[in-house]
Design a protein that fits this description.
Shape: elongated
Number of domains: 3
Number of strands: 6
CATH architecture of the largest domain: 2-Layer Sandwich
Order of helices and strands: HHHHHHEHEEEEHEHHHHH
Strand content: 5-15%
Radius of gyration: 33 Å
Low-confidence stretches: 1-9, 52-58, 173-181
CATH topology of the largest domain: Nucleotidyltransferase, domain 5
Mean pLDDT: 80
Number of helices: 13
CATH superfamily of the largest domain: Ribonuclease H-like superfamily/Ribonuclease H
Structural class: alpha+beta
Strand order of the largest sheet: 5-4-2-6
Oligomer: single chain
Helix content: 40-55%
Length: 331
């Protein structure tokens, strides 16, 4: 069959029907043009004209139907508002168990994004001044090649019921869903080195200079290896005259030039982060069970994990140098 070359209006009714049937059979426009002995442009123009006509007759449905609708969507929305510290991976099992559904964490995240929720840290990083950056950079350069296996890392940490680490909130500065409401807290002090994990010390009330000296007596006073260097932050009780005198009298070497805001250079902060995640997963509602859980985790914390953190110190200090004293990814 010979067909005149030209636009769609020059094709016979028989040719148009054949083009449609061949397209439905999965043939490409180039193959159809060769079979009908017409130009590729003519076939493409006619196929396009048919598609436009079909679209006018029926409404096209793009994508799959939404999974979270009706009462299910309202329940997920309420769960995001009421339990702001639960991530999508923990919300999905709750919904699936209640409705006997099979909803993925990705679907929850998509729904949360469409509803105007964000999920992340509530507070930004502390600001670093130029003076702080300079001291951080100088300390990193000075101690980059030290033997970090001789270091004793120490710090105190407050574990709270409902700690606002990551939370859901509606977008907008004045639309935070839930304020900080504490149901209780546990304040602990801890220290470790490459070969030793010191017993954790619970702090009751405010930690002052006398209380800090008592903690040092129970830990470093009983177990201190000569030649090790003690790291402590610049809290007032830590740099007090009483604490400094006790360290000097017991011949304990410690860093007097530790920089302000040296959070990401102290590996114990990463251990705090690990314990915080494990505590949040338990979702405690009372202080005593949380205290027992935290203390037991600290006592039986893996020495191999501690060594991996300490072995990362050269990389941490090198990144501080590369970023000229600014915060690193270890924050």
């Amino acid at each position: 069959m010979v067909i005149q070359r030209g636009g769609p209006e020059q094709l016979s009714r028989e040719s148009r029907a054949r083009i449609q049937s061949l397209r439905k059979a999965g043939k490409k426009s180039k193959t159809i043009a060769r079979m009908l002995n017409c130009s590729l442009c003519t076939v493409d123009r006619w196929v396009h004209a048919v598609q436009i006509t079909d679209n006018k007759k029926r409404k096209r449905v793009v994508g799959r139907k939404p999974i979270l609708t009706g009462k299910l969507a309202k329940d997920v929305d309420k769960l995001l508002e009421d339990r702001v510290y639960l991530g999508s991976r923990r919300i999905a099992p709750i919904i699936n168990k209640k409705y006997k559904a099979d909803i993925s964490a990705r679907t929850i995240r998509r729904f949360q994004n469409n509803q105007g929720f964000t999920y992340g840290k509530d507070t930004p990083k502390p600001t670093l001044t130029d003076k702080m950056k300079k001291k951080r950079l100088e300390w990193a350069k000075r101690h980059l090649k030290d033997d970090f296996r001789r270091y004793i890392f120490s710090d105190s940490k407050i574990f709270r019921i409902g700690t606002p680490g990551l939370r859901h909130r509606r977008r907008g500065p004045a639309k935070i869903i839930q304020r900080d409401k504490w149901g209780g807290q546990v304040h602990v002090w801890w220290a470790f080195s490459y070969d030793r994990i010191y017993p954790p010390q619970e702090i009751k009330g405010t930690l002052d200079a006398d209380g800090y000296v008592k903690i040092l007596q129970k830990t470093l006073g009983k177990h201190y290896d000569n030649g090790t260097l003690f790291i402590q932050d610049k809290a007032r009780c830590n740099i007090s005259k009483k604490a400094s005198k006790w360290l000097d009298d017991h011949h304990i070497d410690y860093f007097k030039d530790w920089p302000t805001k040296g959070i990401d250079m102290n590996v114990i902060e990463n251990v705090w982060g690990t314990l915080e995640q494990e505590k949040r997963a338990k979702d405690f509602s009372k202080v005593d069970p949380m205290k027992k859980f935290i203390i037991s985790k600290m006592i039986f914390f893996s020495i191999m994990a501690v060594r991996r953190y300490i072995d990362s110190m050269p990389l941490r200090l090198q990144e501080v140098i590369d970023k000229k004293g600014s915060y690193t990814k270890y924050f």
